[in-house]
User: What shape does this take?
Amino acid sequence: MTDTTASPRQAVSALSVDTYRAIWRWHFYAGLIAVPFLILLAVTGSLYLFRDEIDHTAFAGRNLVVEQAAPQLQPSALAANAVAAVPGATLSAYRQPSGPSASARVILDSPAGPTYAFVDPYSGAVLDTVVKKQEFNEVVRKLHSLEYFGAYANRVIEAMAGFAIILVVTGLYLWWPRRKGGGVVTVRGTPSQRIFWRDTHAVTGAFAGLLIAFLALSGLPWSSFWGAKLTELTVATGTGYPAALWDNVPVSGEHADHVMETVGWTMEASPMPMSGAMEMAPIGLDRAVEEAKRLGIAPGFEVTVPGTATGVYTAAVFPDDLQKARTIHIDQYSGQPLVDISYADYGSVAKLTELGINIHMGQEFGLANQLLMLATCLAIILVSVAAVVMWLKRRPSGRLGVPPYPASRRVYGALWAMALVFGVLFPLSGLLIVAMLAVDLLLVRNVPPLRRAFG
Assistant: This one.
């Protein structure tokens, strides 16, 4: 009886060890690839969470005004001063001051590229001009998305977001107690010991794992491939922007993200309406701003000016309070609102997506939201650094120190099935997983020099 019961138990134990080894090896490879990108995302994301605070301290000279008088100058006068301050520039958009101490921001098309001009709304003085691509928060944002390095680099970040979710899932499996006395909720040892870094990595990852996965998932709507597919899905199912509002409005071939200076995720794919009654004189920027105010748009809104004879004025604001998000397209001749959309008009998927984005950006519930996301970013940095230190302390000299192969190949069927699921959910990440497993199984395993170098 002892022999007949021991054999199944040994088989279960062997399968458990093989599964653990296979997932550990997969987790190691994914981490090795993703760690540099995760640190970049965490550092730049931490900075971007406090973009308003940075603007109001480090760049207060251009974003805030000291002497306030009434009344403020007309938007057209402020825009004219901004255009005059940048040779060869033309007006693209105007952002109304968000409060009595805030400057107006005029967006210009200039020979150097899109340019921000910050204007005192009381005196009309141009406080500063900066090319958009050199503005601090814009630099941080483009580093965060690797937009500086082109569309393919942005897709690498998208793949790393999928890898972050994979690392959380596999990391939780590896962390699971399995009768361990330490390294579950406590950290053992001292910084000179590998176990200290192993426990720091595991415990931090376990407690912050769901938030890390949330950050990765809520950032994906802005990505070039996954985000575009989500937009297509919401448009096709009627769960994105309210397409019915355009039923009786003539539209151009342009979409909002091609024309508007600032646009929210839901509105990116929405069509731009066209102005009619071209026999009338254009209403001008001042009246467009007044019309947006009359319609009750929240302070700090931005007005994109029409670039063609059939274009429209578009007033848009995407404040911390999602309920106040608004986009209004105004006929440039009659001054009538052609399309007026608020958050309440969005479809179900768009509302959920925008909520996730708002939390991701630290906007939804004030300082607490910022601090929660900052803590998650710091956890990502700590988990990543701990993983690198732990690996350096564990790996044999001159070798990569990849965790051992499973003794049996039985577990690889389940791993390929997992790779397929992740590949469907996150296609770019799935392609990297397939490539990673193929290299490991076909090359590393079968080429002795590689097997020694990786072992």
Summary: The longest strand covers residues 104-110.
